[in-house]
Amino acid sequence: MTDVTENRPRWHGVLERIAEARRGDSSESLAAVFMLGATVLALVWANSPWGASYDAFWHTHLAISFGEMSIDLDLQHWVNDGLMALFFFVVGLEVKREFALGELRDRSKAAVPLTAAVAGLALPAVLFLLLNPTGPQAAAWGVVISTDTAFLLGALAVIGPGRAERLRIFLLTLAVADDIGALAIIALVYTDELNLVPLLVAVGGLLLIWQLRRLRVWRGGGYLVVSVVTWVALYESGVHATLAGVLIALLLPVYPPKRKEVERAAALARAFRQSPNPEYARSARLGLERAVSVNERLMRLWQPYSAFIIVPVFALANAGVPLTAETLRAAATSPLTWGVVLGLVGGKFVGITGATALLHRLRPGSLAPGLTMPQIAGGAALSGIGFTISLFIVDLALADEALADQARVGVLAASLIALGLGAVVFRVARSSLPEEPSRDLLRPVDLQRDHVRGPVDAPLTIVEYGDFECPFCGKATGNIRQVREHFGDDLRYVFRHFPLEEYHPHARDAAEVAEAAAAQGRFWEVHDTFFAHADALEHDDLLRYCADLGLDIDRLEEDLRDGGPHNHVADDEIDASSSDLPGTPTFYLAAGDAVPQRHLGPYDAKTLIGELERMRAEQAAEASNAADPR
Fold it and tell me: Which NCBIfam families does the entry mention (predicted)?
């Protein structure tokens, strides 16, 4: 029997492997390797004996005509104006998703990285203009404003600290805000002239996309046709055509899957399984697509191509600077080159670190749990890697090729220096860490977000990280009941989530449903019910238990779709992972105002009671000594 994969084109298998890698844990570092490889190839090509062919190839013209209309660009500008529109489209999809469902949805959590991003945009531009206040090179101040997200996250994965999920989220949020600022500056500053009629056509295209969204059109074909027309019109208007990508992306709908659509897709899939035929296959495929928003489907489709093809091709087309002795001499004495280096390396490092430190001082506790200033400093240093958009703006800002080469040398040098500086800062930060990991509770008990059983001001505290499907956690609930009966109103019990999906496939869903129930004030009833039925936690089971308890199921499902429960559970999970918890259940104990400490021994009721009594006795002794120092 012949394997059908043997008949596929070789490139198809390569793209599938790229897509799989993009979805894996190593995707960010792998994407950075692709980009770095393309950069090195461009530099080698431009400085080889065949260097003349580099410019000759990328300045080869390609025209596309439709009747009397024609777009005639060289290959480099097809990459920069055409392919990069897809890159900015993916950026726009990510920005929209972050605002709708991600970190930027919670403005209080995003306040610090957003403030740092603004400082990281403004200070680099100021430093650049100090060295280049006038002349044609002054127009290149936009080169130093943006961070390359792919290189930043790739470098963080390679040289950053372990268990750095909080730092990664901080830097990703900062990079998204950074991209928004860079895109706004490209639109406002680097548009030379406007042609009104094509601009009106482009606006009409955007309004039509908005109308398709209002009509809940979920298939991508209609959006594609209008998007191509909008891109052409925006190009003809004089506004940089890449902005079409981000504007279209910001208009596309994004939402969590609706339960009704998921159930319909499952029914169609069952029908196909029972009677496999082309019609049922088509219906099942369309049903699955309809259950997921256009934003997420397109992001899943285009992310691997953007990261592994579009951005490396852009680097290949733009990073080929001829590093001749003359070019390097000119760059070494050029205020343009040094302005780029100072802006990207110094401006990003000082701006991001300084703004974060100031806000942290003015608002103690504003940093996410486990996120430290040394980590922020290391991430700020890596933010000086401004590769992709920096090179993109070089092409927009500088018509003089000699000045453009000096700016490109500055971008390449700044990226290398920022990488080295980040490695040094992270190494210093690691050397200052204690040898033994801390047993302190990472996130203090927060009465506004935590679920507390018992008096909120009780003198004794137990914090549990648990998993609704974990049999040991189910057993521990009985132990906790005995501990609470022993101490009565002297004890408060706090439950946090640590779903171990690798072993318990329904644990995360159960945790999110419990958080949705909390919005109706019924967390503890659902908590007890889920543990009582830990062997039957399919989603339909969870909804049935909630209905039996009298919860509003429509409201619960709407809260699930809103993303709040997911973010709450994810925060708990990140705290647990950052604390290197070995599993579930894990308990933290405290008496009085002391920071809860991780309990390392057995967790039977007798042991927990004895440990809390010991802590209470120690606190009483300390209070007695403080009152009578003799």
Answer: NhaA
CA diameter of the chain: 99
Among 16, 23, 28, 32, CA closest to 315 = 32
**What does R_g of the chain's alpha carbons equal in angstroms?**
28
What pLDDT is stored for residue 10 in this prediction?
46
Give the whole-angstrom CA distance, residue 197 versus residue 237. Answer: 7
Using 50 as the pLDDT threshold, list the residues of the chain that sit under it: 1-14, 17, 21-26
What does each C-alpha distance from 491 to 46, 154, 532, 598 come to in angstroms?
Answer: 71, 46, 23, 17
**Distance (Å, rounded) from C-alpha 481 to C-alpha 231?**
63
Interatomic CA distance for residues 377 and 357, integer angstroms: 10
Q: φ, ψ for residue 461 (rounded to 5)?
A: -135, 135
> Rounded CA gap, 28 and 19, in Å?
12
* Pairwise CA distance, residues 399 & 601, whole Å: 69
Both tokens of 183, joined, read 């895109």
User: Whose CA is closest to 589, among 485, 509, 480?
Assistant: 480
Name, in order, each residue with C-beta under 8 angstroms of 346's C-beta and a sequence gap of 6 or more: 124, 127
Contact between residue 510 and residue 541 where contact means Cβ atoms under 8 Å apart: no
How does DSSP assign 187-209, residue by residue?
HHHS-----HHHHHHHHHHHHHH
Q: What confidence tens digit (pLDDT) does each residue in 517-526 have?
A: 999 999 999 9
Name the residue with tokens 């990281």. 120
* Alpha carbon distance 131, 334 (integer Å): 10
Eight-class DSSP state of 8:
S
State the DSSP code for 64.
E
- How far apart are alpha carbons 77 and 58 in whole angstroms? 8
Helix/strand/coil (H, E, C) string of 232-254? Answer: HHHHHHCCCCHHHHHHHHHHCCC
Q: What residue spans of 370-470 are helical by DSSP H?
A: 373-382, 387-397, 401-431
**Contact yes or no for 345/128 (Cβ under 8 A):** no
Distance separating alpha carbons of residues 298 and 303, to the nearest angstrom: 8
Q: What phi and psi, each to the nearest 5 degrees, are found at residue 391?
A: -65, -35
For residue 394, give both structure tokens: 């070089």
pTM for the structure as a whole = 0.76
Q: What is the structure's pLDDT at 16? A: 54
Q: What are phi and psi of 369, to 5 degrees?
A: -55, 135
Residue 616 to residues 144, 610, 612, 623: CA-CA distances in angstroms?
56, 10, 6, 11
Span 584-626, pLDDT tens digits: 999 999 998 889 999 988 889 999 999 999 999 888 887 777 6
CA distance 399 to 392: 13
User: What sections of 306-371 are H helices per DSSP?
Assistant: 311-318, 325-332, 335-341, 348-362
Q: Is 296 within 8 Å of 97 (Cβ atoms)?
A: yes
**452 within 8 A of 518, measured Cβ to Cβ:** no
Letter for the amino acid at 492?
R
Say if residues 296 and 102 touch (Cβ distance below 8 Å): no
pLDDT at residue 265, rounded to an integer: 65
Task: Give 104's DSSP letter.
Answer: G
